[in-house]
C-alpha cells in the first residue's frame, strides 16, 4: 500500500556532537538524532503497525550517513526514531551503494561525518518508507537546524569551534588546511621540524684578508655576512669548499665553509655564518 508522509517534526541533537572528540567527556554526548513524524496511507488514513524505514543524512548533494530501521512502531500515524541507535532494528548501510552488512560502528552519528562542512552547506534528512513492495523516497528532504543547546556548543568560553583541534575520520589531528599533522597513533606526520640544535651561528674576528668559517661535519652554510675595516673593501661573502679557500664556489651552492674576502688584512675584519644540518 502506497503511503505518504504528511507531517515531519524534527528534533536535532546531532550538532552538539561535532566538538566532542576535542574534549575528554566524549561519552557524555549521545551520537544520535531524534526524528519524529506522521504517516498516512494513500487514502490519508493514519498508519498503525511496525514499519521498515530508511534514513539518510546529506551535506549538499553528498550522502554522509545511511541506516535502516526495520521495526519502527507506528501508532495512529505517529512514530519516533532515535537515529544512530540500534533500537527499533537500526543497522548501518553503505551511503554510496546502499549495501547492508556494514560495521556496527558506522551506525552512530559521529562527529567525523561532518568534517569539511560549514554553515553554508545545507544538512538534510531524507526518509524512505517500505510500502510492502519497495522503499518509497519522500520529498523534499527535511532541513536540519540547530537547537539552542547546539548553538551554545558552537563556542566554548567565547572561543569559536574553528579555534579548536580538529580530527579526521581516522583519528588524526588536522591543521586548518585539512592536512594531517599527528596520526591516530600519536606520531608527528606534519612538515619536518627543525630543532634548535640543527642550527649553528658562527662568528670570528681575524687579522686576515680571507676569513673562512667552518660549519663542521654534517653542516652547510646557508648564509652569512661580514665587515671589513673602514678603509677596506669587501670583495666577496659566499660559500667555499675548503678551510683555506680564497674564492666562492660555483653558483654559490651551499658548502661546509663560508668565506668573507676583504681587500687586505686588519684586526677589524669580521665574518659570520648561519649553518644548518644537512
Query: Could you report the average pLDDT, rounded to the nearest whole number?
Result: 80
Radius of gyration: 34 Å
Tally of individual helices:
1
What is the CA–CA distance across the termini?
A: 75 Å
In what range is the share of β-strand residues? 35-45%
- What is the CATH topology classification name of the largest domain? Immunoglobulin-like
* Tally of discrete structural domains: 2
CATH class of the largest domain: Mainly Beta
What's the shape?
A: rod-shaped
Number of strands: 20
Could you give a quick summary of the protein structure above?
This protein is an all-beta fold and 278 residues long.
Describe it for me?
The chain is mainly β and 278 residues long. 2% of the residues lie in helices and 42% in strands. The protein contains 1 helix and 20 strands. The chain has one helix at residues 148-153, and strands at 3-11, 33-41, 49-59, 62-74, 78-83, 90-92, 123-130, 135-137, 142-143, 155-156, 159-160, 166-167, 173-174, 180-182, 199-205, 210-214, 219-227, 234-240, 257-262, 270-277. The strands form 6 sheets. Strands 3, 4, 6, 7, 8 and 9 form a 6-stranded antiparallel sheet that branches. Strands 1-2-5 form a 3-stranded antiparallel sheet, with no helix packed on it. A 3-stranded antiparallel sheet has the order 12-13-14, with no helix packed on it. The longest helix has 6 residues, at 148-153. Residues 4-28 have low confidence and may be disordered.
What features would you highlight for this structure?
278 residues, mainly beta, Immunoglobulin-like, 1 helix
Amino acid at each position: 500500500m502506497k503511503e505518504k508522509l504528511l507531517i515531519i517534526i524534527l528534533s536535532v541533537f546531532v550538532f552538539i556532537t561535532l566538538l566532542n572528540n576535542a574534549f575528554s567527556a566524549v561519552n557524555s554526548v549521545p551520537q544520535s538524532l531524534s526524528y519524529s513524524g506522521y504517516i498516512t496511507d494513500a487514502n490519508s488514513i493514519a498508519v498503525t503497525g511496525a514499519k521498515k524505514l530508511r534514513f539518510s543524512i546529506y551535506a549538499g548533494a553528498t550522502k554522509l550517513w545511511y541506516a535502516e530501521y526495520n521495526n519502527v512502531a507506528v501508532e495512529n500515524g505517529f512514530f519516533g526514531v532515535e537515529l544512530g541507535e540500534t533500537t527499533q532494528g537500526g543497522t548501518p548501510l553503505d551511503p554510496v551503494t546502499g549495501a547492508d552488512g556494514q560495521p556496527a560502528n558506522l551506525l552512530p552519528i559521529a562527529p567525523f561525518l561532518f568534517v569539511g562542512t560549514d554553515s553554508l552547506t545545507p544538512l538534510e534528512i531524507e526518509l524512505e518508507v517500505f510500502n510492502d513492495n519497495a522503499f518509497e523516497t519522500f520529498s523534499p528532504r527535511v532541513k536540519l537546524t540547530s537547537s539552542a543547546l547546539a548553538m551554545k556548543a558552537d563556542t566554548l568560553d567565547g572561543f569559536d569551534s574553528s579555534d579548536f583541534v580538529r580530527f579526521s575520520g581516522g583519528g588524526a589531528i588536522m591543521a586548518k588546511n585539512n592536512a594531517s599533522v599527528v596520526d591516530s597513533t600519536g606520531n608527528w606526520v606534519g612538515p619536518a621540524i627543525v630543532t634548535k640544535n640543527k642550527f649553528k651561528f658562527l662568528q670570528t674576528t681575524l687579522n686576515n684578508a680571507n676569513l673562512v668559517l667552518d660549519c663542521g661535519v654534517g653542516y652547510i652554510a646557508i648564509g652569512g655576512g661580514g665587515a671589513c675595516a673602514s678603509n677596506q673593501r669587501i670583495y666577496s661573502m659566499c660559500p667555499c669548499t675548503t678551510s683555506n679557500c680564497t674564492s666562492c664556489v660555483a653558483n654559490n651552492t651551499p658548502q661546509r665553509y663560508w668565506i668573507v674576502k676583504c681587500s687586505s688584512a686588519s684586526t677589524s675584519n669580521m665574518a659570520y655564518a648561519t649553518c644548518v644540518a644537512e
